[in-house]
Amino acid sequence: MEDWSDCLDVAVQIARRAGQVVQSAVKQEKQVSSKSTPTDLVTEADHQVEELIISTLREKYPSHRFIGEESSAAGVKCELTDAPTWIIDPIDGTCNFVHSFPMVAVSIGFAVRKELELGVIYHCFDGTLYTARKGHGAFCNGVRLQVSKEKDVSKALILTEIGAKRDPATLDIFLGNMKKMLSAPTHGVRIIGSSTLALCHIASGAAEAYYQYGLHCWDIAAAAVIIREAGGCVIDTTGGPLDLMSRRVVAAGTREIADYVVKQLQPINYGRDDTD
Ligand code: IPD
Fold first, then answer.
1. Going from the N-terminus, what domains does the chain have, and what CATH number goes with each?
2. CA 214 to ligand 1: nearest atom
3. Which of these is catalytic: 43, 85, 94, 196?
4. Count of alpha carbons within 13 Å of 73, Cβ hemisphere only?
5. How much of the chain is in helix, strand and coil states, percent to nearest 5?
6. Which end of the chain has fewer CB within 10 Å, C or N?
């Protein structure tokens, strides 16, 4: 039985290298364009970094498969099979990257037989490295991570992200969901502009719950392993098991808080990663 520890070591090296490329690209002029909506941004750097990550991994693991944000946007089928598959977001927080707002990450997840096995997330501005391998714990710069054990939602800090759709009907549901979270009452709601780093804050216990409609499998894959290995839960917005391709998630330190969040949410339909 493979333990994939070599894959974790390789992913860490590549995430650091990719993160350095992102760091230097932040200081340069950016070529910005949009993808699915005017607020779904992409830059030259997103493409370069994804190419760097995939070509390096492919050379090392020629039989493995790849799902990458920019390859998918370019029309490569986003399909999770039983084969060992790397799931990559080269620059998570592209809008932040465009503005030099310091919440930008490289995210590399890895699944085998559709099970998430490892995750690496590198914070490009401060060099923080989050890592986890299934069954072996989650770490931040080598220090073990532990989620918050808080069960009382009135003492919870909740994180979310907006997603790319900004039509009035979507915004009404988004704001309605946020109003429910604020009026629980919770301690507060935060939006930092990077799904992967927000999810890392759940893993580290800095916040109690995260929910979002409209994120992608490459935003969830690595973070899901990191949160689970830190003792938290990552589930579907209906309360059932996580469906990586469903473009929706609830993550929390405790099942009690996750269940509370699930009960409040009105769904936003973003379709699926594997059918769009
Ligand atoms: C996006 C960011 C954003 C979230 C989106 C993600 P990207 O990733 O994490 O905060 O709202 O759902 O797709 O496009 O910057 O890689």
1. 5-144 (3.30.540.10), 153-264 (3.40.190.80)
2. 12
3. 94
4. 20
5. 35, 25, 40
6. N
Q: Where would I find the H helices in 139-271? A: 168-182, 195-204, 217-229, 255-264
Report whether pLDDT(1) > 80.
Answer: no
Mean of the per-residue pLDDT values of the chain:
97
46 ligand 1 Cβ < 6 A: no
Mutation choice for ligand 1 from 166, 215, 246, 268, CB with most ligand atoms inside 8 A: 215
pLDDT digits (tens, 9 = 90+) for 157-182: 999 999 999 999 999 999 999 999 99
Ligand 1 proximity of 93 Cβ (cutoff 6 Å): yes
| Residue 135 one-letter amino acid | G
Strand, helix or coil at 94? helix
User: SS3 of 126, please?
Assistant: coil
The residue from 14, 67, 88, 91 that is catalytic is 91
| pLDDT tens, position by position, 124-152 | 999 999 999 999 999 999 999 999 999 99
Of all protein residues, whose CA lies closest to atom 13 belonging to ligand 1? 215
Indicate the SS3 state at residue 213: strand
Tell me the per-residue pLDDT of 222-232, one tens digit each, with 9 for 90 and over. 999 999 999 99
Helix (H, G, I), strand (E, B) or coil at 195: helix
Secondary structure element (H or E) that encloses residue 189, with its range: strand 188-190
CB 138 within 8 Å of CB 145: yes
